């Protein structure tokens, strides 16, 4: 037994409620179990009980053992002065001034066994073998909540970045777009590079793709070598001039090429990022004005300049291949960067218009395709659009990975005794 499981059992009243009695001998009727409290104070607030013939309204505290009340010094804590019932798994005290309800012999062994089974599972997710039994309506409502939670979590992060930038939305947008261009392996390094050269500096050099490339490649540390080709030699010269002009400090970042397909090489991504900066005008404003997915696809429809048609790395000739930003990459940017940015903007300004657009886009965009999604689909879980895949990613990363089955709607259903 864990305290969280005990809270779950009390919250949903998953115990035998017939002929309830507190340890002091009086009858107990639970009118309302209270509201689960994740903040400081008692576990459940605003509960309603009938003890004997007296109606009580107040809070409820739960512990594995009755003696935990004293161990946690609740007697002297004003946050617990309104507790009307102490719910415990085991009563290890001879007497208590607080009404005590013991649940140890009132909970079905089926529920306890199911919970133990979930906690011990080493599969993709704890309930992997039972996912196909959960009804669609449960998945639908749970995915709605998961998507909102994911957007809120990302929004909170974006609003912290906004504070760091002194409420400069364009700057935060630049940081996050650059991070996304770095893909997972180089995301942090690309964001550090973006933070080292402000969007205002880049805007001043927008007339020259070579200067934009020089700034980004130079700050990323790719212009330190001695080159044979004229183009990287020119970039190196431009970078030396611009870094002195703007007194830039080159960050110490480690950027990786290993186990990466050449079109995703960081040098190519930085060249595409330079092309994107040159083609955009007041980037964040353009995102705010976008009404359709087609608007966004056009905005991010960029190709690195001609030099990169024959290169994946500086000074290394390769066969001809224009380095156009792929549609899959653009969709990834829309899902993971544009959507959260617009959600955060609406939250900050108490708006709804951009949230509605994002929700519409997520239902129109194809589902993300990765190992996590494949495993959910193998177990009969629908993944038909980006809304679904974002919800399932939130489920996997924020619930399944940390075994938060008791806070998960799917886990709740599978722990019940009724049909899924």
UniProtKB/TrEMBL annotation:
A Pfam family this protein belongs to? DUF2851
InterPro entries referenced in this protein's UniProt entry, alphabetically: DUF2851
Can you say what this protein is called? DUF2851 family protein
* Species this protein is from: Pinibacter aurantiacus
In the record, what lineage is assigned to the organism producing the protein?
Bacteria, Pseudomonadati, Bacteroidota, Chitinophagia, Chitinophagales
